[in-house]
Design a protein that fits this description.
The chain is mainly beta and 169 residues long. Strand 2 (61-70) and strand 3 (77-86) form a beta hairpin. It has a single domain, classed as Jelly Rolls. The protein has one helix spanning 7-22, and strands at 43-46, 61-70, 77-86, 91-92, 95-96, 100-107, 109-114, 120-123, 127-130, 136-141, 148-157, 165-166.
Length: 169
């Protein structure tokens, strides 16, 4: 019997492979707070406060935590997965994350810049990695008309706390 494999199913398979690669990482930053209940909570990821002219008018991104699981082979640490939704023209200013992060573009195109590196546009199926403490200069939807989504996989301390730490310029 042949089954249809959806692009979302393939995406989840890719995420499983990425997560498997992250499980051995134990270098993290201290962080505390928010716990995702049932994997369906939604919160504002970041405001476009540093997006330049007209930043306040740009849409915000939202984060939908999907899971947070303790890592039995890395005591004191967890892996958290979250779906980050970027409405058209959405912008996330300068920030960092607790622990290590791998981002996987599920839909659309996203521009992202890590401090000290050039901005890069990532399209569906592409990934990037953020080391613990790395400064993320910005992330934005590359389209003013189409939404974009990414799956973020965090390996950090066991508190399943906030996933983004805002930084002033």
């Amino acid at each position: 019997m042949v089954e249809d494999v959806s692009s979302r199913g393939l995406t989840l398979l890719g995420v499983a492979a990425i997560t498997a690669g992250l499980l051995g990482m134990a270098v993290v930053q201290h962080h505390r707070a928010f716990t995702a209940a049932g994997g369906t909570d939604v919160h504002i990821h970041m405001m476009g406060a540093d997006a330049g002219e007209g930043a306040a008018a740009r849409p915000t991104t939202t984060v939908k935590p999907l899971s947070c699981e303790k890592l039995p082979n890395v005591p004191g640490h967890s892996v958290t997965t979250a779906l980050v939704e970027f409405p058209p023209n959405a912008y996330t200013p300068r920030h960092r994350h607790p622990g290590s992060v791998t981002a996987f573009v599920v839909k659309g195109a996203l521009r992202s810049q890590m401090e000290g590196s050039p901005a890069v546009t990532y399209t569906q199926g592409q990934t990037w990695f953020e080391a613990p403490g790395a400064i993320h200069a910005f992330a934005e939807n590359a389209s003013a008309t189409e939404p974009a989504e990414l799956l973020a996989i965090f390996v950090a301390e066991d508190d399943c706390g906030p996933l983004t730490i805002p930084l002033a310029d």
